[in-house]
Amino acid sequence: MASSSQLRVFSFNCWGLKFVAKDLEQRVQAIANALANTDYDIIALQEIWVYAHYEHIRNAISHKLPYAKFFYSGALGAGLAIFTKLPIINATVHPYSLNGEPMDVSAGDWFVGKAAASVTIQHPQLGQVQIFNTHLFAKGGEDGPEYRRAHRLVNAWELAKLIRDAAHLGRYVIAIGDYNSIPSTLPIAVLREHGNVQDAWLVSHPTPPTTSHLTSELSPAEAIEIHGVTADSPLNSYSAGKPLDPHARKFMGKRLDYVFYRQPLSLSPSFIPQLTCSSSRVLLTECIPQSQISFSDHFALEAVLDIILPSPATPDELELSKPHTMLSVSMSEPIISNASMASTISALTACYRFSRQRAKNELIVFGLCLGLLICLMIGSAWIPRSWINPVLVLLTAVLTWTGTTMLYEGFLFGYWEQNALMNIIEEMEILLAANSSRSP
């Protein structure tokens, strides 16, 4: 190999929802101070919903990373921001088709509009590099129920397709963010297989011990170092003492934050620069200086990506590596495995059935509300006492709000959700049939 250089990448979920997140102003100031003198090429932040907080961090690091983009999506914003050393030549945001339910106000995913944000930069050695930053749907955990887990699978599938599209255009891809999934789950399998990406942590770390005996002997600090724990750690002031699921108890937390990367699709991959991860580590595990609180309810993740330049190529080899020849080999790229497709189709089908039943129930409630309103309108003429009128007005308002909400949830959102699920189910069934036809 002729030479090599590096891309230093940093990802952090800032837990920055105003009025909800604890100690927010103090933590944003501490995050800005922590990043001010770092030497990263790319910083991707999640849950940075307040624009003033984004501006504060941007001002603190602009002498190091002068180019930045804050992304808008949904009613409250995507909570995503990307900062880079190199100029941004393109930026886009792709809101995911499914982001939870409008009625699930406490979760808030539907209102913030979870999305895949991206910028494209022009790198002197790699050419165009598309950087994705995302935060996948939260509810459902590792074990479902399927109707909740399915929304995160939809997110993963759509992001994997965006990654493939970028690679087919001849771009290198770096996909950063909080994926709300541990490494063994189906959304990560969908991303790794269909997006054809490498997990920076797995590339740079040997396989960790998996037996319960060895795992049970790990301290919280060792779990961070070995398993890459970024959430639900006993060392985090916001998760210490919090009830944890069996996986978090076993591994002293969860690895939910990732840096994925991949090469562009090329007819001659040996003659284009290659990305590989030489090191990755979990950062900001300590408390904010002179306090007893953590920087966020997550820890940060750093990855160092080496750029390995090839040996000099002949003119014919250089021609083969040009982006305009990429599309001719797009069909030869591996796609998601049959096993992962079958599991995903099963989860999406379960969600589709649940959605249909829920929509049916909500439309029944709408019909009942409408019937009661008609009865109130007719019966109000025979009300003998005037003091009952304010009660009837309040009841009418409640029935109107409930009926309108049920109509929206059951009809508009219900059909939207079912159509989105069915589109992906049919898309995967086509791929599954194509795979089966190619099998000997």
Automatic annotation (TrEMBL):
The chain crosses the membrane at residues 363-384, 390-416. GO terms for biological process: sphingolipid metabolic process. Its main location: membrane. This is DNase I-like protein. It comes from the Eukaryota. Keywords: Hydrolase, Lipid metabolism, Magnesium, Membrane, Metal-binding, Sphingolipid metabolism, Transmembrane, Transmembrane helix. GO terms for molecular function: metal ion binding; sphingomyelin phosphodiesterase activity. It comes from Pterulicium gracile. Residues 11-298 form the Endonuclease/exonuclease/phosphatase domain. Pathway: Sphingolipid metabolism; Lipid metabolism; sphingolipid metabolism. Belongs to the neutral sphingomyelinase family. It is found in: Membrane. It is a multi-pass membrane protein.
